[in-house]
Amino acid sequence: MRVLVVGGGPTGLTLGIELARRGVGVRVVDKATAYFDGSRGDGLQPRTLEVFDDLGVLDAVRAAGAPPAPLRAHIDGRFAGEHWMTEPREPRPGVPYPNPWVLGQSQTEGILRARLLEFGVRVELGTALTGMEQDADGVTARLATGEVARFDYLVGADGGASAVRKAIGVAFPGTTDETFRVLVGDVTAPGLDPSCGHWFAAADHPMAGVALTPLPGTGQFQFISPLGEGDDASLETMQAALDRFSAGVRLTGHGWSTVWRPNVRLAERYRAGRVFLAGDAAHVHPPTGGQGLNTGVQDAYNLGWKLAAETALDSYETERRAVAARVLGVSTVLLDKYVEGAADAHKRGEEGFGLDITYRAPDATGTLVTGDRAPDAPLLDADGKHVRLFDLFRGPHFTRLAFGAPAPDEEHAYTVLRPGEEPVGERPGDGRYVIDAEGHAFTGYAATPGDTFLIRPDGYLA
């Protein structure tokens, strides 16, 4: 099988890894002539961290990034207190990564590119898609290099202005508000403490201020502020905004910057024949809530295993479009609070973490059913070594758990035993069983002896 992924951002890179590690012949092309260099989507949500665990990049992401920092508020030049956008949470047996993680998007992309390269796949820069046609057997793609190539499938992960989406004629309804603009950029501020974020504002309108949040490993901060009429994305504009609030902060340089307008859109379809849409090509979000990059990565994670096996392909749109619609709603509510100046506009709860995403049927009932996220749990393996359920799930395979009963004679099938129980029909040490020493697996799956669960490659119950 040959698949062309158009777009070398986080969504396209995740899909490339998912396909390449399953032996699919994949190419990832991008019209840009250089890799993106900037923070943009710098908030990685807990469910995305679980995806990165499975992809084999989590250690690198955690080493390069940092947990979210507290935000110190300065009103009219005076310190007014310290706040958390998200209250730190302790890991739980079923949730090993309960908190978001901060890492600039270009750093995340670099880590994903390195992982993709381990499978022998490079992002092909300067290679725009200039045309395509599809038939019952495949897709013919024309590239800016002059190449014409044939693929079994094509995936558009090429952003909100997606050439792929336009080529297949999929509508992209939604709204764009030109009356509200936000300046976002990466700045250097030598006098600011990088161990925390900073909020500068005026007492008569405290929510219309400037936020500066640290970007781990760069020595920079991400600058965010409403933009006035006629203002641009220059360093001078950023400095003037700070000066209005008696911040006493001097900016000495900046890198990537952009002027953002509320743009909320959802593609009417995610699939047209052998062509699929993922990430911003399928949905664009307000930056509030930090959902765009995360939703795109999880689109790719859902589609990758299905595309590689050519199975359940229609379920990709069914499952992921509903998630995007819900996430757009959450992000829009947060944006409205920000525009209205609500006191809690910067507070974030677990609704954006992605841990409650489910693909269960609308009429399904029960604690854990088909379509729900499969929780983690600490275990002991047959040799008494500490392992986790996520260790068993890691990789491009399905995993079967048989609680208190012999596991089927198939790869990646395990009997889950309580302490003191002996495996039936298994040789000690053969690795076909695990011990739920603390009872968290039985509890997390609401399992009774004889229950079996099949976990999909993307970590949801089949």
TrEMBL record:
Its cofactor is FAD. It holds the Pfam family FAD_binding_3. Residues 2-328 form the FAD-binding domain. Keywords: FAD, Flavoprotein, Monooxygenase, Oxidoreductase. GO terms for molecular function: monooxygenase activity. Transmembrane segments: none annotated. SUPFAM superfamilies: FAD/NAD(P)-binding domain, Thioredoxin-like. PANTHER family: BINDING MONOOXYGENASE, PUTATIVE (JCVI)-RELATED, TRK SYSTEM POTASSIUM UPTAKE PROTEIN. Belongs to the PheA/TfdB FAD monooxygenase family. This is FAD-dependent monooxygenase. The lineage of its organism: Bacteria, Bacillati, Actinomycetota, Actinomycetes, Kitasatosporales.
